[in-house]
Write a structure and sequence with these properties.
three-stranded mixed beta sheet; alpha+beta; three-stranded antiparallel beta sheet; 213 residues; 6 strands
């Protein structure tokens, strides 16, 4: 003969207790009020614990939804900021932080004015768009700006950003968009030089000159 599982027995007992409680409540309701027996009160501690658990689950669910919504919103803002950056720097050939709207065409002046107002709105919302073009490209900066390619160039002693494909965008201190750039490097190599070693050499040369004096 097959043995009965203890777990199944417990479940049946719980179901029977629940059905029995419902029957007791219905039986009491069928009696006149003066003959009804007051049922035992629910444990207030257990009730509060269950209520608190339910509230915590709801809060966590709302927090997850809010976090997901914030991520989508920040991605949308980053995309819109990139569009403004492209229009100003690539189409109108203006520096990102240059507020000058001078142009031969009135429509172009109006467009530049609207772009500048959009940039001001981004700044007011704590959105910081950074275009690293012509700036030094230090080792270990891949987390901020991904190099599309390294371009050997004559006359360079250090790596620098030759052109920006996608700007770096922050929301406060939070990076919401990684930049993408082309990096110019000294002709002798296709990888950026070690800036720390170069600076250490310069410091040693400076110190030796000072001692000789």
């Amino acid at each position: 003969m097959s043995q009965k599982q203890p777990g199944n027995t417990k479940k049946r007992i719980k179901r029977s207790e629940s059905v029995s409680n419902i029957k007791d409540e219905l039986r009491q309701l069928s009696q006149p009020p003066e003959y009804r027996i007051k049922l035992p009160a629910v444990d207030s501690k257990l009730s509060k614990k269950a209520e608190a658990t339910s509230v915590n689950v709801q809060k966590k669910t709302v927090a997850k939804k809010s976090k997901g919504g914030d991520t989508v919103l920040l991605r949308t803002v980053a995309e819109m900021a990139t569009c403004l950056w492209y229009l100003k720097t690539k189409f109108f050939k203006r520096e990102w932080n240059n507020d000058d709207i001078s142009h031969d065409e009135p429509s172009a002046r109006r467009a530049l004015g609207r772009i500048n107002r959009g940039i001001d709105a981004l700044k007011a919302a704590n959105i910081d768009v950074q275009d690293p073009v012509d700036k030094r490209y230090p080792p270990g900066s891949e987390s901020l700006m991904k190099p599309s390619d390294f371009l050997p160039k004559e006359g360079l002693t250090y790596a620098k950003v030759e052109s920006t494909v996608v700007p770096i965008i922050f929301f406060g201190d939070q990076l919401i968009q990684q930049g993408e750039v082309f990096v110019a490097v000294p002709k002798s190599g296709s990888a950026p030089p070690n800036i720390e070693e170069q600076e250490n050499k310069e410091e040693k040369v400076s110190a030796s000159i000072t001692e000789s004096l």
